[in-house]
Amino acid sequence: MRVISKNDLLLDVFLMMYLKRIIIFAVVFNGLFRIVSGNIPDSLENALKRVTSDTAKVMVYNNFARKLMSGQSPDYSRALLYAQQGLTLAAQAQFPEGEVELHRTMGIAGFYMNNYDQAIEHYQQALNLCEKMHDNTGLAQNYYNISLVYREQSKIYYSLDNLLKALSLWKQSGNTDGALSVYKDIISLYQSVEDYQVAIDYAMQALELAQNTGNRQEEASLYDMLARINYSTGNVWAVEEYYDQSLQIYTALDDQLQIARITQNMAANLYSNNSEKAMELLRKSAAIYEKTSPASNSLYTVYNNIAQLYQAEGRDDSAMYYREKALSKSILSGSPQAMANAYCNAGMFYLDKGDMGRAEKDFKKSYDIALQSGLANIQSNALSGLSSVNYRQADYKTAMMYLHKYQNIKDSLTKEEDKKNILRLTMQYEFEKAEKEKNEAIKAQLTQQQQAIRQHQNMVTITSLALIFITVLLAFIFRSHKLNKQANTKLESQHREIGRINNELQEAHHELYRYKDTLEEMVKEQTVKLHQSEIQLRTLSDNLPGGCIYRKHVYPDGKEVVSYISSTAKEWLGLSAETIMADSSRFYRQIIPEDLERKRKIEKESTHAMASYSCEYRLMKGDREVWLLENTMPHADKNQSIVWDGIIVDITARKKFEKELIKAKERAEESDMLRSSFLANMSHEIRTPMNGIVGFLSFIEREDLSTEKRQAYTRIIRSNVQQLLQLIEDIIDISKIDAHQLPLHSIRFNLNTLLDELEIFFQDFIVEKDKKLELFLDRSRFVSPGIIESDPVRVRQVVSNLIGNAVKFTDKGYIRFGYELTDDSSHLYFFVEDTGIGVPEAKQEYIFERFRQACDEKTRAEYGGTGLGLAISKNLVEMMGGQIGVNSKAGTGSTFYFTLPFVPVKADESK
Question: Which of 67, 257, 279, 648 has the greatest number of CB atoms lying within 10 Å of its CB?
């Protein structure tokens, strides 16, 4: 390559300065010509005079406000004034379309004046009007404008929410240009938070829309975006393919500026380690820019990159030439940022070469431009350079001064970045908080419903117990009344008999003794009957199912005496009736302290109100805890004591049932959560291979594709298809298992041959996955000749699942598998041993459950999977009469095993 001389360099700089003066002269001349010829913008008053209707005047106000904001020196204050006047007139004229446009204009003004609250307010007003008019296009545009305001404030989640609303409306109305514009903003948002997979998903959707509508320009632009996203993820092959696609379309459209830009990006992103290829592409890009847009900022960037390549190769003369050329192009572009960067880069170059005078001059120029334009980053770089220059010149005081300025700016930039990060995190927290509040509201509603159900159940229980108690009392009262009535009747009869005997005493003295004997006999009979009634009442009390009846007296001095309690107290309370009646405190000492305190409080409140109460509490019955329900009613006795008649029922079984219901509910909620997580994971697992298949099919259709790439893409498509088929087979199997429709076909087959085939298959599979693993089949304890009777398809499926899992979660070491006969020769013991990541002990108990995986979110994202393989294997093994399990320790590997019943089959019997 030719070395550039200093004379050539000076000539080039002179030409650039001359060209700049010509451009300035042309601009000034054009302005003077317009003034002389009277071609100046019409005034607002003249424009208003030329229209008659109020609606037309409204649009005049709006147009003038827009012009004031779009000039070289925008006047946002006057624009707001005109827009407000137009808004007042539009309201008077009942012209809602005009109000929408003026609110949007005022929103734009607020946005550029950094008055974001005002901007949101006007866009919201426009939204309300568009909703009343059912103007979906206007709604979409305002949602889009609101998203821009939120994005400027780094409120990413609010911006995304409004973008999604705008996207939905524009897609419904068929506005593909608006939809594609929103797609690009959504993609950029996900790029900014480094969620590249979601960005790729949206980019693929947008690409499909552009292809369906024939929008080649947008199609090329989206290929370019996909290339840049994949560059961020390190997916180099995809970067190259997408850049090629974009370049082909721009070439067909003959869009030279875009061709130059793509070529420039390819040099930077694809060939950063290949200076020769990068130089070729940069020169091609520079030639296009020089021809089509010599004053472009991009041309400065291209020459700056060429200079860096020459400098890296140690070709200082060529590097200096292109540094100066980049500087001249930045001046020609008129961009303060480009000029400040160019001077700073030039200063760095001359500082490195020891030309302190030139370096200091360039750094000062860079600092001045950056200071005037508010470019803090470039200011800090220039100050750092000035500090280095003065340090090398031994002017340590000046060097320290520049270093202090540099540090102040750096601190300010760091604080600004911290503010943005804090704001972003705050918005994310608010977004998640809103979601959490929704969930909490739902949970609260469920809790209220559960409490209402529980209260209803308690009322039913209490009512039932009260009815039982009342029935017992009524039966006792009725029986007592009946016996008393019978006794009274007999006594009356006796009195009449005694009177008759007295009247006839003298006549039949000898009859007296006979009647006396009869009377005694009758008294004895009644006594026996009363005693029997008392026994019946006590028997009823002592056999009350699940509880006991009691009567307690509470005296004014606080003394408590249990005068009666059923003998069932021993069974339900753990103390005999005699013990409790002798010392009731022994019963209270068995109650759990916190429950006793609550029971005493309820008793006190009930005594004051002389009202019944119901109380649940726990009692220690030996070493066992039981739950009791006590219902009692107080009434005052004539000796100033309070008498409590109550019933105590053992509700331990009911409490246990309630706990089981709660656990069942929690298990159901957990199952629902796991199912939801499984469905989300399944969606991702299906979408991943489908994206690969669709993406590579579009590549493989290209006619200019080389044979090697076509074969490579075909292999990738085949791998994704196999992955998708395996996923579908797992879903079908688990569905058949749930429906009990998965049949087993037991036949005689050679187990040793089946395992030999699996060894060959998985050795090829490991080579294809490019894993440094050793797989071997342990044949040392094989049964000969290995003929068994079972379902070979399902045995193969279970062993394949276990080996496949071992390959997935093992990056280095070995995998050993095989089988042996158990000690009692009744079962075959299969095993798959690996040196992978292992399974934590706490997670081994549910690793065979559906939708459950032992890995965390990070590991699941790395290794993938649905959590169905082991669940299917467990069901299949149990259907074949065996058991499955795992022995593992996190970080040291795992051994998965299962057993199958073994019935020896001779080789000749298997024919």
Answer: 648
